[in-house]
Write a structure and sequence with these properties.
Chain lengths: 252, 286
């Protein structure tokens, strides 16, 4: 088992507010789904936004520790953040389709990187849509505006858009929180397929989804990593009282 | 109970009627002005009126140099104010942090918009005509009009840029876009209709103003077309002022004909802006 991401002693404080992450140590395995779960305000989104340096857009008072991806500390100021974000894709809670066609959404990332060859772009469109289990539904209307898709389709389009960049890591922040059960099922099924090729870090929108999808699970509470372990152990036999209480629904 | 419902219904309908009436009273004077100018001015409009030089101390002939002059001044104003205004708006909306300096810039912009246009005229005389030695010229007048127009363009463009959802920017950055790529490929195209509307409304005001060009570029009587930006020029609003107040025994028709041409010039810009805006609203995907 390879540790794709190694987080060492990571602490984060935004310009406003208290410590959002406190001394986090976590190893995220390649080719698996690692789930970060816990009540709102635990720091899960903050951690994801550190991994792809999206927090660069936010005012931060203090950021300490290391995030090593393939051994390179991405928090190093010398990191090429553009390359990093291509390698570490992100899917957000609300599906945000760009104001282009379906195809335009998918080719956007590649075009940013200077890809102009139509064959390459077409190939990426088809490949990424198939990976996100959306190809059959949209293959005949790739030039329609992406907003015309249903919410569930839009979210799979967002996943496909990330995949078109050929990332190595995919971060998903409550990607199914606004979706119906059927769409949620499709996204989860797609992730189960994708984990064979990618490193997946998922913030689920419920404990049930966490238990369903986790190969590994990390329980976050108010900026602290309370417990980490293989999913089957953590949900059936938690070691920490707080994890047990949360998993069994005694607080939320 | 029943009676009070009926009462409320009556009051509501009365209120609606009153508001409709008030709305109509605001439209009425505008229609009156436009209608009157069309009625008095339309008989003066002819091919000769639009394409000939003025004759007989402007009492006969056409108003071609004034039409062309206003066109040149509007284009000249656009050349300076549009790129600068949009650049400033992009800076304020996309790059500037909320600091003392940017707050100062915003306050300056708001206050600039409130300065009477004759003050711009005097400023243009001092800076462009005299100090920079541009003389009374299209260049000096265009620059003066640009300064007057800039606040309008900046404010409207900044508003249009800010209306583009933040989530588009976040997504673009997360896909490996630089800030400039994000602006160029998403933010600007999405804000463009709003920016264009602001630009046209700003230029429309410039096209109709007399005071800023009075000392900087407008000629009283110059029956030829300008052939360089350093030439002075006739212009519709100033020509209208001249023939309405400065020339004795001026035919009534020529005054109203000139007013009508200016009105059409400005109104068509307004209509273009409205069409752009409503088209963009219908097409907008957010
Ligand atoms: N941009 C921000 N500025 C200031 N505080 C923030 C910001 N984003 C999150 N926080 C704070 O950081 C803490 C963790 O938030 P978050 O990472 O969103 O948690 P989670 O995703 O687990 O709900 C919360 O207390 C939240 O208020
Ligand atoms: Mg969150």
């Amino acid at each position: 088992m390879v540790d794709k991401i190694v987080i060492e002693n990571l602490s984060l404080t935004y310009a406003e507010g208290n410590e959002s992450l406190r001394h986090i140590n976590l190893k995220i395995a390649a080719n698996a789904i690692t789930v970060l779960f816990g009540p709102a305000g635990g720091g899960k989104s903050s951690l994801l936004r550190c991994i792809n340096r999206l927090n660069d857009l936010t005012d931060i008072r203090l950021l300490q520790g290391k995030i090593l991806i393939d051994g390179q500390n991405v928090l190093d100021p010398k990191t090429d953040v553009i390359a990093l974000r291509r390698k570490v894709g992100m899917v957000f809670a609300r599906p945000v389709v760009l104001p282009f066609s379906i195809r335009g959404n998918l080719t956007y990332g590649l075009e940013l990187a200077g890809e102009k060859r139509k064959s390459r772009l077409d190939e990426a469109v088809e490949r990424s849509l198939k990976l996100a289990a959306l190809w059959e539904e949209v293959k005949d209307r790739l030039d329609d505006p992406a907003v015309a898709l249903s919410g569930g389709q839009q979210q799979r389009l967002c996943l496909a858009r990330v995949l078109a960049n050929q990332p190595e890591i995919i971060l998903l922040d409550e990607p199914t929180s606004g979706l119906d059960p059927i769409s949620t099922g499709k996204v989860e099924a797609a992730l189960q397929e994708l984990k064979h090729q990618y490193t997946i870090v998922l913030v689920p929108h419920s404990v049930q989804q966490a238990a369903r999808t986790a190969d590994y699970a990390a329980f976050f509470l108010q900026g602290e990593l309370v417990e980490f372990g293989p999913g089957r152990d953590l949900f059936t036999n938690p070691k920490d009282k707080r994890t047990e209480d949360y998993v069994e629904g005694r607080f939320g | 109970m029943k009676r009070s419902y009926a009462n409320r219904d009556l009051i509501q309908r009365l209120g609606f009627s009153l508001l409709t009436l008030l709305a109509l009273t605001t439209v009425f004077p505008i229609l009156m002005v436009v209608g009157y100018i069309i009625k008095e001015g339309a008989p003066a409009i002819s091919w000769e009126f639009l394409s000939a030089m003025p004759r007989d101390g402007m009492r006969a002939g056409g108003i071609l140099p004034a039409i062309v002059g206003t066109l040149y001044l509007t284009i000249g104003t656009a050349i300076f104010s549009v790129p600068l205004g949009i650049a400033a708006a992009i800076y304020l909306s996309e790059y500037a942090r909320d600091t003392f300096l940017t707050r100062l810039i915003r306050i300056a912009i708001i206050n600039l918009a409130g300065i009477p246009s004759v003050v711009y005229g005097l400023f243009g005389l001092g800076l462009f005509v005299i100090f920079l030695r541009f003389g009374t010229s299209i260049l000096a007048a265009s620059l003066t009009l640009s300064i007057m127009t800039l606040p309008v363009i900046i404010s409207a463009s900044e508003e249009a840029l800010r209306a583009v959802p933040q989530a588009f920017r976040t997504v673009s950055i997360s896909l490996g876009g630089t800030q400039w790529q994000t602006i160029r490929r998403i933010v600007l195209p999405q804000a463009l209709p709003g920016i264009l509307t602001g630009v046209i409304l700003g230029l429309e005001r410039a096209a109709g103003e007399t005071a800023p060009i009075l000392f900087t570029g407008a000629a009283f009587f110059l029956p030829r077309l300008p052939d360089s930006p350093m030439d002075a020029t006739m212009a519709l609003p100033y020509h209208l002022f001249v023939i309405s107040t400065q020339v004795p025994e001026m035919p009534f028709q020529i005054q109203y004909g000139t007013a009508l041409v200016l009105l059409i010039f400005v109104l068509s810009m307004n209509i273009i802006a409205t069409v752009i805006r409503s088209r963009a609203r219908a097409k907008r995907q957010w």
